[in-house]
Each structure stands twice: as structure tokens, then as C-alpha cells.
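Session log. Operator J.P. requested a structure for one protein chain; no other inputs attached. Running the standard single-chain path with C-alpha cell output.
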Amino acid sequence: MRFTKMHGLGNDYIYVNCFNEKVADPSSLAVEISNRHFGVGSDGLILICPSDIADARMRMFNSDGSEAQMCGNGIRCLAKYVYTHGLAEPGGPFSVPGKETFDSSLRIETQRGILTLGLAIGDNGTVDRVCVNMGQPILAGAQIPVALTSDPVVNEPIEATGVELFMTCVSMGNPHAVFFVDDLSLVDLEGLGPAVEHHELFPERVNAHFVKVAGPNEFTMITWERGSGITLACGTGACACCVAGVLTGRTEANTLAHLPGGDLELYWCPEDNCVYMTGPATEVFSGDWPE
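Structure written below.
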């Protein structure tokens, strides 16, 4: 089976072109191929599948084999792969309302629905940056889901590992709990992360993010991803942190997120209520996995 390893800000995935390949058991393959000692090593597996309603369809599996609804860094890389390998004919320019216009566009089917992405094409014909219209954030507690009656879930207390924290919850097609802190160096991510992920308030588990705000248009974040653990970046999580910053009055709608793997540009657009995320996508190498 032919595969390609790609990453968005160090959030790395193994991609399989299912236009050509067949994967009988993606959950088991995700566990095996993601292993950083005995496999290729990644945060998960992403299948690039044909679609009857879009240019391609994305299926994403965490390194523990669980299937996730969405992946912001993953879909940027998938769009670059589709364009670079000619799997679909790209559409016309893609514009972020009131902001940047990108050269070409693709439509990708996900469990979040069909998402439209803009591609910035460099002089050498390669994809330099990708912008994703991540859609409108889901703020209703029951739809995130979180077992609280609050709607939206803003600055709600939660206890984990004996520590009281205050969270703001957002879904970007997958659930996120955002915690604003004064000092990221004091966050026990390995302890708090799994405790929050598996907390009884989250019936489908949750991604946990800890955020230090530097100003109205800038923040730094660290992440514990549901099903993957500590990762260098989380695109949907960065979008959730952008929304949470606005909801709590800490940031404005246009922000720069600093993640361990690099930066993402984020914009919660008031015109359409959608969150736009822009960042790089990098192809690392390709190889063959024994079937």
C-alpha cells in the first residue's frame, strides 16, 4: 500500500490515496502505522476518498484507532495532496470576506459537511498556504456535546486531578474545551489532558486546550488531543480557541495563534459567522506499507 506522510505545523498524518488504494480496516491500520517506534509514526491516518458530492472525501482516524469528525491541519494537507497529485480539477478563486483572496479552491466532504478551501499557489506551482472555511462554530452545549445546561458553555467550572478550572466549550465538528491560563509553563498537560478528555461531562470525550493570551489579536496554546495525546498543533482546536477568546472578551475575531509547531491565522467572520483558518501544509515523504 502506497502512503504519503504530511504535516501541518508538526501535526502529522499518514495519507492513503483511496482513489487507487483500498483499506479494509482503517482503525487497525491507524494504530499500527501511527506507532512512532514500530510504524511510520504519526498522530493518525487520513484516507483521501472519492466523493459523489465534492472533489474528495476525508476520513480521519486518531492514533488510537478512533475515527474523528474533523481535523483542521489534516484537511489542509489533504487539499494540497489533491491539488498536487491531480485528483480533482480545482475551482476558481476563494475569498475570505473582507480579507484575502486565494488562487484556487477545492471542496472536501467531511463528517462536518462539505468544506471549501482556498489554495495559495506559489511561482513554482506548489501550494504554499491553505485557507479553510471551517464553518460556523457550534455553541449549544447539547450539540458539542457537554453535559451542562449552560448555553453557551462559557467560563464554566470543572474539576480535574483535584484542580478547579474554568472552561469555555466549542465544537468545530469535534468537541473542544478551552482553558485560559496566566502561565502555560505551570500546566501539567500530561496529567490534566487525559483527565479532561475522559471527564464525565464529555460523553464523546473532548480535546483540551490551554491558552495564554498575549493581546487582543494574539495567543499561545498547547493541546491534548482526544485519541492522540499531546500534539504540536490542532487546527480545529485553534479555531475553537479563537471563538472562546471572543466569547470571553479576551481577544478579537482576527487573531494569530502560536502553537508548538508554528502559527495559524484565524478569523471568526461576522458576515457569515464562519471561522477561517490559514496555515501551511507540508509533504514529508512517500513509501510503501506491507499489506
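Operator note: Helices lie at 26-34, 72-84, 189-197, 235-247.
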